[in-house]
């Protein structure tokens, strides 16, 4: 079963439309069956929106943008670690075909230009761990998320960094990460994360801070903390329905 179908069954099929609950036969909608999936309005009027969505899900997927989730976090923040390991990574594992994850390790840290350094909420170990993860994201690319999940789910984030890298991104040498953290690249990556975090609108007031398709709402964040899977499916369903409507409306 593809990812879209998984969401269709989980979100759409869990909602039974009123017309399907009636004991008497569905009234005629005025359109022949061949036209029922021509547009979203017709599908709803004929009471077959669910079936049309299912039918369309079995065809080659239309160009539907993934749900983009960006997590602004700190490497040693307990709440950040819990969200990343208990919600974000498991959901991404199941729905990676329809969601894109961006990680920005910085959080409540402060950039100190006059000292050419950073100050972090959980001290120097967190500043170093943030930079290690920034360097992993840069060097490991698509394999970075499993590495960071491995680190954040371990008892000691920093001690686990090297074995996690060797396990999930063996093509990246640990020396590469160390060189990154000690040189200008690591500092530049952290500066970029500082700029991204400071540019948030509304400004972040806590961590983890989560945006969806570049937008933040407290409602989305509340849902994400406990039912991220359902939220991603719901947001993607809206995007899918939008494409579905325009595709059949043409």
Explain this structure to me?
Lysosomal thiol reductase that can reduce protein disulfide bonds. Facilitates the complete unfolding of proteins destined for lysosomal degradation. Plays an important role in antigen processing. This is Gamma-interferon-inducible lysosomal thiol reductase. It comes from Sinocyclocheilus grahami (Dianchi golden-line fish). Its main location: secreted. By secondary structure, the protein is mainly alpha-helical. It has a domain at 67-227: 3-Layer(aba) Sandwich (Glutaredoxin). The protein is 55% helix and 10% strand. The strands form two sheets. It has a three-stranded mixed sheet with strand order 2-1-5. It has a two-stranded antiparallel sheet with strand order 3-4. A hairpin with a 4-residue loop joins strand 3 and strand 4. The radius of gyration is 22 Å and the shape is elongated.
Give a short overview:
This protein is about 55% helix and about 10% strand. It has 11 helices and 5 strands.
List keywords for this structure.
three-stranded mixed sheet, 5 strands, two-stranded antiparallel ribbon, glycoprotein, 10% strand, Gamma-interferon-inducible lysosomal thiol reductase, 250 residues, oxidoreductase activity, acting on a sulfur group of donors, disulfide as acceptor, disulfide bond, Glutaredoxin, mainly alpha
């Amino acid at each position: 079963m593809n990812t879209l179908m998984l969401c269709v069954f989980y979100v759409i099929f869990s909602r039974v439309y009123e017309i399907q609950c009636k004991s008497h036969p569905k009234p005629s909608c005025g359109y022949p069956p061949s036209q029922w999936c021509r547009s979203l309005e017709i599908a709803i009027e004929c009471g077959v929106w669910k079936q049309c969505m299912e039918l369309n899900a079995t065809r080659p997927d239309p160009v539907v943008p993934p749900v983009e989730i960006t997590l602004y976090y700190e490497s040693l923040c307990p709440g950040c670690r819990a969200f990343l390991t208990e919600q974000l990574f498991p959901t991404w594992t199941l729905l990676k075909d329809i969601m894109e994850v961006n990680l920005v390790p910085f959080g409540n840290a402060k950039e100190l230009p006059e000292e050419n350094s950073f100050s972090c909420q959980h001290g120097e170990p967190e500043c170093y761990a943030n930079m290690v993860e920034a360097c992993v994201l840069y060097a490991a690319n698509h394999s970075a998320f499993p590495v960071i999940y491995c680190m954040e789910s371990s008892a000691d984030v920093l001690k686990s960094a090297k074995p996690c890298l060797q396990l999930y991104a063996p093509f990246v040498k640990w020396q590469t990460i160390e060189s990154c953290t000690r040189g200008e690249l690591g500092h530049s990556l952290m500066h970029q994360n500082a700029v991204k975090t400071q540019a948030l609108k509304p400004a972040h007031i806590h961590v983890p801070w989560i945006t969806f398709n570049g937008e933040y709402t407290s409602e989305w964040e509340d849902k994400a903390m406990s039912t991220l899977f359902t939220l991603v499916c719901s947001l993607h369903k809206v995007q899918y329905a939008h494409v579905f409507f325009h595709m059949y409306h043409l």
